[in-house]
Amino acid sequence: MDFALTQDQRLMQESLVRTLAEASSLDRVRKFAADLTDKGADVWQALVDFGLAGICVPEEHGGLGLGLLDAALASEALGAAVAPMPFMGVVLAPIALLRGGTQAQQSEWLPKLASGQVTAAAVISEGVAGARDGAGTTASGGKLSGKGLFVPGGMAAGLLIVADTDGGLHLVRGDAAGLSRALMKGIDETRRLAELTFDGVEAEPLAGGPELLSALRDAGWVLVAADSLGAAGAMLDKAVAYAKERKQFDRVIGSFQAVKHMCAEMAAELEPCRSLVWYAAYAFDHAPAEASLMAAHAKALTSEVGRFVARTSTEVHGGMGITDLLGLHFWFKRLGLNRQLLGGPGRVRELAARMQGLSAA
Q: b/e map of 172-184 (b: 16 or more CB within 10 Å)?
């Protein structure tokens, strides 16, 4: 049995890495982070030209028709490049439409998503990680009222997938009356979060209920885990490269055993995450009985390992690690946000325990 990626998957990821190296250089990321009016349109267009906008949209609707494993590989590349774009909605919206949308909804939205004409965002944090600050959305008479927090890409999305307090899901147009948006301040300067307020906003229901919400949660966990895998891998690579060139006492610091151990420990902690993320993504499409538990394990583990790698890589860089010159903080903060998106490790492990009957709801 072959447990490796296919040649097409490797080529796709390698090609995306090259695209990001040109379209989302560190200088471009700095520019985005420094200007809240910068929407990263050029980066998004480069990824649309690559085909990423339609990665999970079926070919008959203009997309690539790929699975969650392919999307996870793309998410890993985006994390490694700290690309200034939210990817979750790109993947979750087609899943929601394909599993819970009507034929008319699919025909209207999937081609627009695949072409990049419309971006989407998933307002599911309250349904997954629990409501805070009075957030949460209720549905009544085909309209939504309430508030959704921590929505990646929510400021510009033309289509919203919104979960209500009963676990139902709804489509909301980005220009709907009664919808207001506010930018939320977060630690990650490469992705912007929105607070969305719904005041009697018209919505179209999706079929599937809590089961569909669970599927979106699982896919979201996998995507965040993959992004963390990429960001942590980049921090490890930067630490190793720095250790090979930085000198102290007329020796590169990588020759000191303590620094070798730090780099080796990062690699040893990070490598098992790769196979876990790959399998969690594979299980989503091919082993549904295992999908939720594997996604939970992938999210929780990469959250913990990502924080360890972020801290240790910064330590290897010494005082330079906290300066803006190297830009290491972009990866550090991205990992910090990923740790909490759709639930921190404690919350995710609690849900995993419930899935296995080890904890009462």
A: bbbebeebebeee
pTM over 0.85: yes
Task: Give the strands of the sheet with 120-123, arranged side by side.
Answer: 120-123, 159-163, 169-173, 204-206
CA distance between the termini of the chain: 38
Walk along the chain (361 residues) and give the pLDDT tens digit of each residue. 567 899 999 999 999 999 999 999 999 999 999 999 999 999 999 999 999 999 999 999 999 999 999 999 999 999 999 999 999 999 999 999 999 999 999 999 999 999 999 999 999 999 998 878 789 999 999 999 999 999 999 999 999 999 999 999 999 999 999 999 999 999 999 999 999 999 999 999 999 999 999 999 999 999 999 999 999 999 999 999 999 998 888 899 888 999 999 999 999 999 999 999 999 999 999 999 999 999 999 999 999 999 999 999 999 999 888 888 889 999 999 999 999 999 999 999 999 999 998 877 6
Same domain, 130 and 83: no
Question: For residue 140, what are the CA distances in angstroms to 135, 179, 295?
Answer: 17, 16, 32
Q: Which domain holds residue 295?
A: 211-355
Same domain, 152 and 259: no
Return d(Cα 139, Cα 150) in angstroms, integer.
Answer: 20
What are the residues facing 171 on neighbouring strands? 161, 204
| Phi, psi for residue 186 in degrees, rounded to 5 | -135, 170
